Amino acid sequence: MKEALRRALACLAKAAAVPPEVLGIGSSLLHVSDTPSLFYPDLGRIAQAVKPRFIVHTGDLADEIKLRSPSPDVKLYASRVQSLFSVLQATSADRIFLVMGNHDDFSVVKALCASYSARFLAFERCLRMELEGLRIAAAHRPEDLWKCVSEDPADFGLYGHDTSVLPPDADGRQDLNGNVKIRVLDLKRRAVHSFDYPRAVHDARQKKRKIGL
Prior knowledge:
10 strands, six-stranded mixed beta sheet, 33% helix, four-stranded mixed beta sheet, alpha/beta, Purple Acid Phosphatase, chain A, domain 2
């Protein structure tokens, strides 16, 4: 019954409106964060439209599930994250970076990465990379991002976890909260495009917080 309700909510959720300016970008990065599983079908449609070269997820892959150690929800979590992997596997992205959130299980995600393909890369706390000459740092919590870039500066910082918004430019760096908006980064032009999640995504997140998750 709960699974049927979850699918019904996903069907009722309005699809995210993808702005035309993010279509046809030669080299782009798609950034999302804190995704309840009802968003996975929309994420697949967005990725098919944008055709990003890279996808970065900054954690809480199945946002409606809070894992504890030990947790009876690990099997459910693994099943939901496997659904996310299936959606991401169907995209044309060259590489898919997954940074663990405070409600993720690194061992589960690492095992899924190994069972899918080398396109999937999991990071426990902080990700550093250079794409098209841009230095990019990513972490789930903003405080982890700050620590990461204090040790090694970056052009862009990606994070999630909450809806607090960092200053748009800090020491020449632009920080992007993937919890607030879906982000598409044009790597060649260094331009950022942002658009809204479907309302149902924010509703699912708020419901999780109300029940103490």
